[in-house]
Amino acid sequence: MSVLTDKFGRAITDLRISITDRCNYKCVYCRTGNEGAVFGELPFADYLRMAQLLVGMGIRKVRITGGEPLLRNGVVNFVRDLSQLRDVGGDPLDIAITTNGHLLADMAQPLKSAGLNRVTVSMDAVDPERFARITRVSNGFDNVLAGIRAARRVGLWPVKVNCVLMRGFNEDQVIPFGMFAREEGVIVRFIEFMPLEEDRVWAPETVVTLDEILRRMAEYRPLVEIPHARSETARRYRFEDGIGEIGIIAPVSHPFCGHCSRIRITSDGKIRTCLFSIWDHDLHELMRRGASDEELRQFIHGVVQRKEERHHIGEPDFVPASRTMVHIGG
Fold this sequence. Notes:
The protein has nine helices and twelve strands. By secondary structure, it is an alpha/beta fold. It starts with 13 loop residues before the first strand and ends in a 26-residue tail after the last helix.
């Protein structure tokens, strides 16, 4: 079977696998603050079989997500197993993980030794008090900072720090994060707030847009745009003096759907072709029933042919995604 391509001609090369929808944080733009239901977790052997199938169909990059993936016992061995796979060209996979960083300080070296290439840490304020207000965790800031520094120290490069900006909570953190990028030697990426939170409080006025972020950062230091690949989610900028880089992921104000190369597998084994899909496609149920690899490949191919052309955030006919972000995978 040829490399996965959807009906719009987009090659599918990036896979995001959520290995849990449990999380030790309750960020205001994601969780309600209550424990809430979880959809479940699968044995790592099942995620590995899914990854093997998709790598054989053209996937080159695998990102492990959650929930908080470092909560799962066995994640280091899962990274090691993924690192043994080779893409259709015979090259090793690019393996990354997205984490809130709370447990990263102690796990950075084992993950690096197992074959992890890169790490992205979610961190929504550089002020400890503001950080606690957003995450609803009182002791998190120092742990996350230690995790970021450990990741740099062991060579999980580049270390990216993702900040979801939400008006009324942390829009004043733009310049402090610019300073943080320069001082800590990390790439800071600002993300426009999307309607994927459990409380369903999203509204257009809560979004801090790409243009506003650039205006605010220009008050600190001039930026120069860096060329980026068409399928990259972030627009990239460096400071004019060459010290520090930021990115802006702007799915609301500057959608990048036309070059999307991603599909997702949820922690309970469903394929999602878009963050804002209103359907799940149950790959794990077919596995449970004993489907062969060829039958699973045919199913995956059919699902990808139904991949959405784009999302409809902010449009009159917008329908919220059938799951919230924590139950999809970051």
